[in-house]
């Protein structure tokens, strides 16, 4: 299917980092300009570990939503070794807190308070399984002896499979998957296991990060993998399977924190997220698969209503700015200074 315009049900972003304080002035408008809802990651510093804190964070986000946008942030709690079962129970009664995020300790940005041993959180997970609360997983082991390109595959064998054996009905979103192994794992599981796929893992592979020079703005976690894995993600996104849906993992860091001796992980895609997903589906002759991936399958998985209104996009080139203000610094977005083939139709 090929066309110069498309109208889809308003999409949602099922995985985003909005940060806090003045950064919200940048991140929230970028996401709220098009997405109806977004699942907001709790890896602030300190992390969001209670329902009360999640609701206060939500209020700060809402203050940054531009007028005229009906954007709804959906909040998450950060799973620590000591998160109490009572806190899980509170989530069930709170419409705008939806899920719990699992970071293995040390896996990524602000994950120092993450889980040190999965068995420590089995009581909390048992409660989540009972109440139908999704566990959102950053699926990488952190053992220093495991190669960074193998950390997702090893996580599947050593953590995810045993977890699902013990809690077979647990709702799991395997976040930002990056390997063929993850695609196959998710496909092999029943309906309670799904995955988000970022636009950068669909568009790029590790050559974009490393060949001809190190490009710190392509450094994210899980790290970009070799091309066969990228191909597996592309096939999964185009397959029309409801197990795979949109989650940008848009994760801004200041330019100085990226372009330095030990740069932070994260790619800032929010300013062009839906445009780039549209370009991607178009380039694969699969525009007819965009709407379900971006606007249906995530809502269905979370048992939320699909958005009612529509957004339309037109095939018309624009140039992404070189950077945006972020706090008192700047953030360099995906495709900075380059063209993007699709844009939102504002008429
Ligand atoms: C995220 C961040 O910066 O918060 N970084 C990233 O590379 N994706 C954390 C995460 O989701 O791993
Ligand atoms: Zn993330």
Automatic annotation (TrEMBL):
- Residues bearing N6-carboxylysine are 101
**Superkingdom:** Bacteria
Where is Zn(2+) 1 annotated to bind?
A: 15, 17, 101, 249
| Keyword field contains Methyltransferase | no
Q: Which is one Gene Ontology cellular component term of this protein? A: cytosol
Assigned EC number: 3.5.2.3
Please state every residue range assigned to the domain named Amidohydrolase-related.
13-310
The family database entries (Pfam families) matched by this protein are listed as: Amidohydro_1
Query: What residues sit in the active site?
Result: 249
- What metabolic or biological pathway is this protein involved in? Pyrimidine metabolism; UMP biosynthesis via de novo pathway; (S)-dihydroorotate from bicarbonate: step 3/3
Q: How is the cofactor bound?
A: Binds 2 Zn(2+) ions per subunit.
Function, please? Catalyzes the reversible cyclization of carbamoyl aspartate to dihydroorotate.
Q: What is this protein called?
A: Dihydroorotase
Q: Which organism is it from?
A: OM182 bacterium MED-G28
Its lineage reads: Bacteria, Pseudomonadati, Pseudomonadota, Gammaproteobacteria, OMG group
């Amino acid at each position: 299917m090929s066309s110069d315009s498309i109208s889809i049900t308003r999409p949602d972003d099922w995985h985003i980092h909005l940060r806090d304080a003045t950064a919200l002035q940048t991140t929230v408008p970028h996401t709220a300009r098009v997405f109806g809802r977004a699942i907001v990651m709790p890896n602030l510093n300190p992390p969001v570990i209670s329902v009360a804190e999640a609701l206060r964070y939500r209020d700060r986000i809402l203050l940054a939503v531009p007028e005229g946008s009906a954007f709804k942030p959906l909040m998450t709690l950060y799973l620590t070794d000591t998160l109490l079962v009572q806190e899980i129970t509170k989530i069930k009664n709170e419409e705008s807190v939806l899920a719990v995020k699992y970071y293995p300790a040390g896996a990524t940005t602000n994950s120092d308070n993450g889980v040190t041993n999965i068995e420590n959180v089995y009581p909390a997970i048992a409660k989540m399984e009972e109440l139908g609360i999704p566990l959102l997983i950053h699926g990488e082991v952190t053992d220093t002896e495991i190669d960074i390109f193998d950390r997702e595959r090893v996580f599947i064998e050593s953590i995810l499979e045993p977890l699902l054996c013990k809690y077979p009905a647990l709702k799991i979103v395997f976040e930002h998957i990056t390997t063929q192994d993850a695609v196959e794992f998710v496909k092999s599981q029943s309906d309670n296991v799904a995955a988000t796929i970022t636009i950068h893992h669909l568009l790029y592979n590790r050559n974009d990060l490393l060949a001809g020079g190190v490009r710190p703005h392509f450094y994210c976690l899980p790290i970009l993998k070799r091309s066969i894995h990228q191909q597996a993600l592309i096939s999964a996104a185009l397959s029309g399977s409801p197990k795979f849906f949109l989650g940008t993992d848009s994760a801004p860091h200041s330019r100085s924190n990226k372009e330095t001796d030990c740069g932070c992980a994260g790619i800032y895609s929010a300013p062009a997220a839906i445009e780039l997903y549209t370009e991607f589906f178009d380039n694969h002759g699969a525009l007819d698969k965009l709407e379900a991936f971006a606007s249906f399958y995530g809502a269905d998985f979370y048992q939320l209503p699909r958005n009612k209104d529509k957004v339309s996009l037109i095939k018309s080139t624009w140039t992404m700015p070189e950077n945006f203000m972020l706090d008192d610094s700047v953030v360099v977005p995906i495709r900075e200074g380059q063209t993007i083939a699709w844009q939102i139709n504002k008429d």
